Amino acid sequence: MKQGAAKQGLDIALEQDGPLWRGRFTAMASPCECLVRGVSAREARQLAETVAEEAWRVEHKYSRYRDDNLIAAINAGDERWVSLDDETARLLDFADQCWQLSEGAFDITSGVLRRVWRFDGSDRVPEPEQVAALLPLVGWDKVERQAGQIRLQKGMELDLGGIGKEYAVDSAFQLAGKLTDADLLVNFGGDLVARAASNPWQVGMEGTARPMAGQLQFTSGALATSGDRRRYLLRDGIRYSHVLDPRSGWPVTDAPRAVTVFGQQCTQAGLLSTLALLQGREAEALLREAGVQYWIQWGDDAPVTG
Amino acid sequence: MKKTLDRKTLDGKKLAAGLAAATCSLLGQPVMAQDTDDAWQFDSAVLYYSEQDRVTAVEPVVRGKKQFQDESELELKLTLDTLTGASHNGAITSDKPQTFTSPSGGSTYEVTNEVPLDDAFKDTRVAANMQYTRPFTRTLRWTGGLNFSNEYDFTSLGLNAGLLWDLNNKNTTLTFGLAHEADTIDPVGGAPVGLTFQTEEDKTDGTEDRSINDFLFGVTQVINRRWIMQFNYNLSVSDGYHTDPYKVVTVVDANGDPLEAESFGATDIGAGDAQIFELRPDSRTKNAIYWENRYHFNRDVLAVGYRFMSDDWGISSHTVDVKYRSQFDNGWYLQPHVRWYDQGEADFYRESITAAELTDLQNSESEVSADYRLGNLTDTTYGFKVGKEWDNNQQLSLRVESFTQSGDSDASELDALITQVGYTFYW
Questions:
Q1: CB contact under 8 A, B23 and A94
Q2: pTM for the predicted model, two decimal places
Q3: Which annotated residues bind Mg(2+) (chain A) (predicted)?
Q4: CATH architecture under which domain A70-151 falls
């Protein structure tokens, strides 16, 4: 299955619609696209290739589903020091700052909780003892770091899934943006960043119930969405969101279905939407305070926007 | 069954600012404005200006700027100027000795074969500016400011008000401004009576005044994502005392040698003492246009500015200013700079005058000045600025420039070196 995904990933389909070029490919289990306006076919292909290669590079380097990358090496380290390259060190610094800013609500060591939590739409909620048994393996403060190196305690794991896709969007956008002055939009499965000289991009947002939850026009900025209408558990009328609070090991039960944030960078918007989701009922208050534009879908109704 | 956690313990505003900063360092970008929203931006700089054999100026400047939540902006600036050295007193350069009185009239000095300089030149200037800009409606902003400047013999008070109007999706901004300035000049030893001999010490008591009214109209136009253009028109009308109380004009014979004061019935204080105090008109109207283009390449920026000024003293000037900013990795930049300035002389500029011309001037009560700054003048400045910007918007820069001036007289020949160290930080 992994090989199949990789093979499929190497295809880029380039389509033209008037002055608009659309390069499509698959990465990180999501449909991805690179949109560019008013360039030649050769340039459009070059841009799409740049964007796709960056997506595949980040995916390859940071996917927790591979056993041949740095994340696998760190996770298999078992109390040994593992050397980091600059990019990974920067990502871990970022994760560290997010952990601090969120007071522990964002934690890249929380992936081990998925050993007992499977958000398949069923009612299989784990026993509290099962969750409690994993909690000693969660906690960014238990991770040791020194210049250029990292060491995990036995059984702990890093999972950059919470920032990897948004980071890939920003990084690919930066790379492509240096190659052209043209209007550009990079979209990896709904997390996107765009710029336009004057003619704004129009972006539609998927809804939980309706196909379209909202439409947004902007010339420069990023959108990121957290939440998933397919990944949840339902038992005794309680809908468990797939977002786990790393401090308790339990999902937020009264969280919104989806939170979309408009920001300057995709990484920043993605973190804000995740943290808002973790605030449960207080999601909107956090976003209002943060002073960003947002859309919150609580149920099957139209989103609350602000 | 599960631990309950306190929700909503996070401060959204802090979180957003912290995230913005963290994102920028992750992506290796300069931090955006939002995380410095609550901070004062301080620009500090020390300028060192040194003319060969003449004036040396040391000028520290601190500027603080803050943007508030309501999008208003306050800017405060404090400048301190220390000038020491010698300044040209207006007389010609001659191989015959010339004798001058000091501004206070208390002593005399003699100069031969050199540009006559007034050694007593020493000044400390303190200037403070305050400017506040605030949105009025979504597209209209107003601005108001106060200026104060003081030095030993000069005090200036100014106020200004303006409107900034954004049109065309903020791609066009129109600026209208009015400014008023009131100056008080209190020359050392009193203000001399123009066209009288320096030896007569005919000076007035008390102070002289000048008022200046300015009108400004400006258009800033975004041509495209990379190119921004600015056009300004400035009308300036000033009334009152414009004469430089420390400048004289040499009265010469047919050979161009300085005459003696006693041959005009004035007191003898030494050889070549026929120097009269200059006299300038009591009003000046200036018209100036300024045109600037800024072009952003992928990283580099080119700025080209042109200014034309013309006044009713007969002076017209052209200034061309070109800067190119080369942006390197890791926040370093290098900015070469070239400036060229050229002006034509004022109607009443004379390098020196003859006895007959003096009689004509005195009879018609006309103006005369030998200040080289009112004569034909060309100057060229070239140099560079090198700087480094850090992720937290701190910036350190060094500017080194060479200034060369030439004109009608020996006094106008001047070389100077300008160095400036600047530091920008947030607090």
A1: yes
A2: 0.59
A3: 162, 274
A4: Orthogonal Bundle (1.10)
